[in-house]
Design goal:
- There is one protein chain.
- The chain contains 21 helices and eleven strands.
- By secondary structure, it is an alpha/beta fold.
- The strands form two sheets. Strands 1, 2, 3, 4, 5, 7, 8, 9 and 10 form a nine-stranded mixed sheet that branches.
């Protein structure tokens, strides 16, 4: 983003905040006078209960149908809350995929749908003993990559609370787009109080702070065992993968994203330069690497290859003091440094957004659909993700991801300012 864009973003910010508050109030008034439409409601007699927040207009996406079928195969009661409207024929032809289907006015974002689905559960079904309670939404594209296994893991866990992934920003919390709770926890006083009092809003920061953060805080308050909360994919699992197969370290660029518009991911080709912290490298070369003073193509090429090729090159160029360390000693040293960098990076921001390729490698079937819009995915990165998809899935996901380009460049005026400051 240019300096001029940054200046305009600051100038537009007060107007952006005012505009968003006016729009939020307008939608709140419309919501107050709106009515929910119940298209289907059946009794709960299943092993598990699932609430899915949707933003689907006209037709159900094929990946959502696949998700619903997978949940049905595990004897789940499926309560769908949609803040848009499906065609009547679409509802009728897919009634076998859900047990409850409600359409509501589009206010409150995903937590507005969650609140409707969960308060209905408390009202009609919470007295029926069951195993797990799942909360999902359609902000992900659900591929066939380990979808059934992932759902089974969420349903057959001993953790009181288990999420798709976790986030360490501000405080530890579970990502709200996929959470599994046991019966006692979803019916705890802490969660009942939270959902009864949750105030709806279209403001993004409200949803993050009073939604995602406070929801996790209520979950932790309702736990019988404070340690019984985790995520299916977390830094511990990442370290297990890095330790069991050195391909992730030798060819780390194949499992990381490089072409990000925002932020500063350390897992880029230049990461190899940061690993040169050992006396095995000549002082002059080390200084160049640290200073970033890599002017020639010959020097730059060392930082765009995998670790084995990198070590071979510095051997062949005579840059390495060969008598001080063996090839394996250098490789092991670089591996340990890279592990530290990678795991540390896992604690910064949204793991799910920043490490989509490795998430797929570790068995996650979902990809966030705002990756390009948020500036966190480029064409080369998409090709890496496509390795885990069928041809049809790859085509569909490509179209969905590219339906919204990077907001800081595609939006204008107060909307661009609001995006840059994380308001939309």
């Amino acid at each position: 983003m240019s300096l001029l864009d940054q200046i305009f973003a600051k100038l537009y910010l007060p107007g952006a905040i005012l505009a968003l508050n006016i729009l939020n109030l307008y939608q709140k008034i419309r919501y107050f006078f709106s009515k929910n439409t119940i298209h289907k409601k059946t009794d709960f007699k299943h092993d598990h209960y699932v609430v899915i927040a949707m933003y689907q207009k006209g037709y159900l996406r094929d990946d959502i149908k696949k998700l619903l079928k997978t949940l049905k195969s595990q004897n789940c009661y499926i309560s769908v809350v949609n803040c848009l409207k499906l065609n009547k024929n679409e509802i009728n032809s897919n009634k076998n995929l859900f047990d409850s289907y409600v359409e509501r006015f589009n206010y409150g974002r995903d937590f507005g749908c969650y609140k409707k689905g969960i308060t209905d559960y408390y009202k009609y079904s919470s007295d029926v003993k069951h195993k797990r309670f799942l909360i999902l939404n359609d902000s992900l594209f659900y591929s066939s990559n380990n979808l059934e296994g992932f759902i089974k893991d969420l349903l057959n866990t001993n953790y009181e609370a288990l999420g798709f992934s976790e986030n360490h920003d501000e405080e530890y919390h579970l990502a709200s787009f996929g959470i599994s709770l046991d019966y006692e926890l979803i019916n705890s006083k802490a969660l009942k109080k939270y959902w009864k009092g949750y105030p709806l809003s279209d403001m993004r920061k409200h949803t993050i702070r009073k939604g995602e953060l406070l929801f996790s805080r209520a979950i932790k308050k309702g736990l019988r065992d404070p340690s019984s909360i985790s995520a299916l994919i977390n830094s511990r699992l990442l370290l297990e993968y890095l330790n069991k197969d050195e391909k992730y370290l030798n060819y780390f660029l194949d499992y990381t994203t490089e072409e990000v518009e925002v932020g500063k991911s350390v897992l880029k080709p230049q990461t190899l330069a940061t690993l040169i912290q050992s006396p095995v490298f000549e002082e002059s070369f080390l200084k160049k690497a640290q200073d970033g003073n890599l002017k020639t193509e010959k020097e730059n090429q060392f930082f765009s290859v995998n670790i084995p090729s990198f070590i071979d090159q510095i051997h062949s160029k005579g840059i390495l003091n060969k008598d001080e360390n063996t090839y394996n000693e250098i490789k092991n040293y670089m591996h340990e440094q890279l592990k530290s960098i990678w795991v540390r990076d896992f604690y910064v921001g949204s793991q799910f957004h920043h490490h989509p390729v490795m998430f797929m490698e570790m068995g996650c079937p979902g990809i966030k659909l705002d990756m390009i819009y948020r500036g966190l995915l480029g064409p080369k990165d998409f090709n890496k993700i496509s390795r885990y998809l069928t041809t049809d899935e790859s085509k569909t996901l490509y179209e969905m991801l590219n339906s919204r380009q990077y907001g800081a460049k595609s939006l204008r005026g107060w909307k661009q300012a609001a995006f840059i400051h994380g308001l939309i």
